[in-house]
Amino acid sequence: MKGNGKMNHIDYLQSKFENLDLVNSSFHELPLSLHIKLQDEFYQLDDQGEINLEYFKKVYDSAINMFDELFNESDVLYLVTVVRIEKPLTKPLGLYSKFTSKSNNYRLKTFKEFDEDGQTIQFSLETRKKDIAYKKMIKAICNQDFKELTPRFTDKLVTYPEVFFINKYKGLIFHIYDDRGAFILFNDEKVHKDFNIKYSTLLRRE
Fold it and tell me: Which residues pair with 110 in a beta bridge?
């Protein structure tokens, strides 16, 4: 696994989240995590079996509002994408060129792992909120299971990219896994408790 330069997201996770591994750790099992529903009023399909655009508007709005609450304009964040591939990539993920500003082009780092199933790559970009098209990116995450919807991540991979927004200043991680929900992981008990109360009506209670 290789990186270069100053502290990368893996160093940060080791320091602030007790060696959290984005590839193998389960957020669901961690004590300072919240499992959030992005909406609970509508279904993905309408009565005619068509995509329910009202459902997706609610999902987008909920996820984007959460991002805006968790990340201020001045916050430094790591934009981390985990992908699993069978064949070597010939270029970085298109989502970084499509959804981030040109000022980010030379700061993208890669961390590679190999196992019997192929290769896992973590792409990591230290950036700021203003330098990423986070609203479009969030919509693309939510659209992953519905090919008719845009925007989308269009890289041809074994699996759809998993995206993690890591707030370097506030010590939290926001991971939207698809249109059904998201995890927020904290490294501070008080902040976790505050958001547990704030999002109490949206918590998934397994």
Answer: 123
